[in-house]
Amino acid sequence: MEKRVMTYGKRRRGLVAAAAVLSGVLTLAACGGDGDSSDSKGGGKGQSQVDEAAAKDASDAQIKITPKTGATDAGINRDTKVTVSGGKLTSVTMVSKADGSTVAGSISSDGKSWKPDGQLERSTQYKISASAKDSDGRKATEHSSFTTVSPANSFIGNFTPEDGSTVGVGMPVSINFDKAVTNKKDVQSHIKVTSSSGQEVVGHWFNGNRLDLRPKDYWKANSTVTLKLDLDGVEASSGVKGVQEKTVTFKVGHSQVSTVDAKAKTMKVVRDGKLIKTIPISAGSPDNTTYNGQMVISEKFKETRMNGATVGFTDDDGKGEYDIKDVPHAMRLSTSGTFIHGNYWGAKSIFGSQNTSHGCVGLSDTKGANDPNTEGAWFYNNSQIGDVVVVKNSNDKTVAPDNGLNGWNMDWSQWVAGSATGA
Prior knowledge:
This protein has helices spanning 2-19, 28-31, 38-41, 47-57, 184-188, 375-381, 412-417, and strands spanning 62-66, 81-85, 88-96, 105-107, 113-116, 125-133, 139-147, 154-155, 157-160, 166-167, 173-177, 191-195, 201-205, 210-215, 224-230, 235-237, 240-242, 245-252, 256-261, 266-271, 274-280, 293-296, 299-307, 323-332, 339-343, 361-364, 388-392. By secondary structure, it is mostly beta strands. It folds into 4 domains: 2-57; 62-149, Sandwich (Immunoglobulin-like); 153-253, Immunoglobulin-like (Sandwich), CATH 2.60.40; 256-409, L,D-transpeptidase catalytic domain-like, CATH 2.40.440. β16 (235-237) and β17 form a beta hairpin.
């Protein structure tokens, strides 16, 4: 009998040790004794007494890890976290199964939670191991393994202007999504643009992939604009969720609006309400007129190549009617190829007297873009992304609002009508 009691004692100690690492959840009935009732008959302790003793040694700390094990579409920003009740976290380790790298994270000052320090990668499997102790120093552990959402099942928005940039008063916030959005109201309601000027900002959907946001009138000069994308977990369409959580701030510089009069062949540059320069120009020829309307400078190139074939100007052999590899001081006004740029190949006499281009606005310049005394160089050096160039008196239609960043050519009621959330 003595031998049987000693054997049972060893088994009991093993059960207590096992219970101490089960995060406070006991499943001893499945892994307890051999069910031999002779133990109790022989004077040993019953199974219920063993369970009770083990329970007293189990930790009060209860760890919860999200996402749950097996999740396959976890978000990459806010979905991942570890919390504990009845104790404090002592360690959390998160590892990428793809390359074994450790994900940096931080335990809160009160020891009650943990989260990654930065954004996770898409389509990546991660493993989390967490440990905690209760007030009596008893340890609990928990594990989870999950996979983040794939590019095929997520969407992002590529936006302009860039964080920290300074732009002109005409610069809208333009977001191009990499997948078409059908739940436009849900997506737009998680995008907010505010200005230190207090101007009301409304978004307009040009299609399922593009959302532009602007105030009724140009931004106030010297204001600050903030874009907040809170799209993590927001569903753009069935099974496609957002992954972005970002705040972008940019500054609006001075107000500069330059008006090109295609008939008079001049451009008047007005900064902060004052005329600072009048420049002779050469706009589109009678056969290739320049668009009318308000156009926003979206790109600047000290030199760039312009080939007519890329915008539909070809000869009988299919080659471009022009191919100039070093156009100086070029600034884009439309997606379709309208620029305001320097021109060194035309006679100096055309500026202010003839419209000769294929639709662009030309300014007198020199080859190499190194002469700061030319009209083309002056305008380039005194312009910023987001400045407005208005063309009038051309024998052409008004540029389409979505051809470049040119939504200013749509009146306010039309603009608001394209919002999924209203004004």
